[in-house]
Amino acid sequence: MFVLGLPDAISVALFDLDGVLTSTAVLHRNAWKKAFDAFLSERDPEGFVEFTEQDYLDYVDGRRREDGVRAFLHSRQIDDVPEESVDAIGDGKNKLFVATLEAEGVEPYPGSVRYLEAARDAGLRIAVVTSSKNGAAVLDAAGLSEFVELRVDGLEAAVRGLPGKPAPDSFLLGAELMGVTPAQAVVFEDAISGVEAAVAGKFGYVVAIDRVGGGQTDTMLSAGADVVVNDLDELLAA
């Protein structure tokens, strides 16, 4: 290990964005809640059961929009929704998210900024790999674009036809474009699906960030994370 809390063989860092570098995971969760609650209450007003934070963590967090919609609806035994309705829920969620982002902006986590600064100073190359199609806007709004050498986001994944997390394809593309093998790269993730993707891709090290509490740390370790922290700057003392 060296000053960044990583194995010496690591030369490239692949960071997820929402919930790892920026607080936008909360904005995503709130937007999903509004979109799903509107759908569920209209579909079955009498039997309406709201979308919860645990639903977000279990079925939506880290996944592509359409995959998250299908996974959550399946969890409620709703499998008869046509493709256009799946798209409508996802598009409605995205409009809510973008509107909130434009109105309120976004702040990076201070500990993440400290870690990015230390990583840059130490010569660790930095890329962002996110399922979000708003990756560029979020990085710019948070003032983090200066740290990022390469971005693989939901737009790039769609163009290339890549499956979403927990498949490792986006992370593997990030490593390839950075010119390293997976064994030479570390993945930073806050979603269980993202941890599973990093493990499936056989990356050299997997850092999970638990900003939820409860049993999330144990779940992340069970999914294959090498270490779990509450904020990235904890690694600077490792």
Automatic annotation (TrEMBL):
Its EC number is 5.4.2.6. It catalyses: beta-D-glucose 1-phosphate = beta-D-glucose 6-phosphate. Its cofactor is Mg(2+). It comes from the Bacteria. GO terms for molecular function: beta-phosphoglucomutase activity; hydrolase activity; metal ion binding. Pfam families: Hydrolase. Keywords: Carbohydrate metabolism, Hydrolase, Isomerase, Magnesium, Metal-binding, Phosphoprotein. InterPro entries: B-phosphoglucomutase_hydrolase, Beta-PGM-like, HAD-like_sf, HAD-SF_hydro_IA, HAD_sf, PGP-like_dom2. It is an enzyme of class 5 (isomerase). Belongs to the HAD-like hydrolase superfamily. CbbY/CbbZ/Gph/YieH family. This is Beta-phosphoglucomutase. It comes from Gordonia rhizosphera NBRC 16068.
